[in-house]
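The protein record reproduced below.
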Amino acid sequence: MIEAVGLTKRYGAKTAVYNLSFQVRPGTVTGFLGPNGSGKSTTMRMILGLDRPTAGRVTIGGHAFRDLPNAPRQVGALLDAKAVHGGRSARNHLLSLAQLSGIPASRVDEVLGVVGLQEVAKKRSKGFSLGMGQRLGIAAALLGDPQVLLFDEPVNGLDPEGILWVRNLMKMLASEGRTVFVSSHLMSEMALTAEHLIVIGRGQLLADMSVREFIAANSAGFARVRTPHTDPAQREKLTGVLTEAGGHVLPEQDGALRVTGLALPRIADLAHEADVRLWELAPHQASLEEAYMRMTQGAVDYRSTDDQLAGFAAQQGADGVLPGAQAAVPQEAPQQGWYAPPPPQPGVPHPGVPGPAPGAPGPVPLDQNPYARPVPPAQAPAPTPPAAAPATPPSLSKSDDTTPEDAR
């Protein structure tokens, strides 16, 4: 079991992880989620003794990683698939790791077969694709047949067959009673792989619960209702009836209606009484991605903005458009609020989706979120005079005050 208590890590003035406490129990796949820069990789590095915590402690089986005898036989990890000498073959890379840990050479051939790299075992790793590098990193993690396994983005670069293989591998390892801790940004894959979730944001714990509880606590349920598209009058009639009954109705882009505040049987009864035919009446099943976006929307550090040069070529007139090309017509962007449906009303049941667990914190409104940053209005760049050509080429060296990559 992995246990972190009050874990804190600072890099100068930057706090990557702050007062983080959690447990990763054996026998289940535990997902580790969080936005970029939330401290996931830093936490994993502290678990493996690669970074020393500023405060707090983290143990594996009750011992710090550096105190474990022959740690590679007890803990396996994949943090960086590129951490391989490019001049070594896949087999020689694994063989060197095995010799350092007293692992027999026969085990090297076994793990090469497990990850499907037998045919390229004698090829240099510098010619490997990203997916092949991931497989080699997984083989290195499995080399000592450890009871604790940590994987940071293990499916990066893998094709669908490889992603399915990793998913089944994680579940099989957990079913054998091992502790499996997996970090990933692929919500759809994590929903199929993990049973328990640990979610952090800006270095602090946001959630520590099962996948089902996480979705229920961070999503608002609603019903999708659709009337015959050949009769718009019935759609308007149903909207009025549901609104009078206390429901909240919003139109969907595909013509359906999103209804909150009314249970499915009540919606069906109202439609029947109003003599309105229904082509669809279904509860909305929230996804892990939807719940994750709803919880972490206030803890995202990197947000995109509109392109200030969008449509620039079309604004140049006919002379600036290529022959035969048509000027782009600006269109209204679709509403991207699908992951944040209307919040539930107190005391009103929501169709098909259980309500939040008692005592569970609700989402923070954007207008009360201290992390919400207003996007400044677009301003035209001020004209700058042409600069004289430099006498010497500019330096390409990196700045000395860069933030460590592992603080992401």
In short: The CA atoms of residues 29 and 194 lie 5 Å apart. The chain has a mean pLDDT of 80. DSSP finds ten helices and 13 strands in the chain.
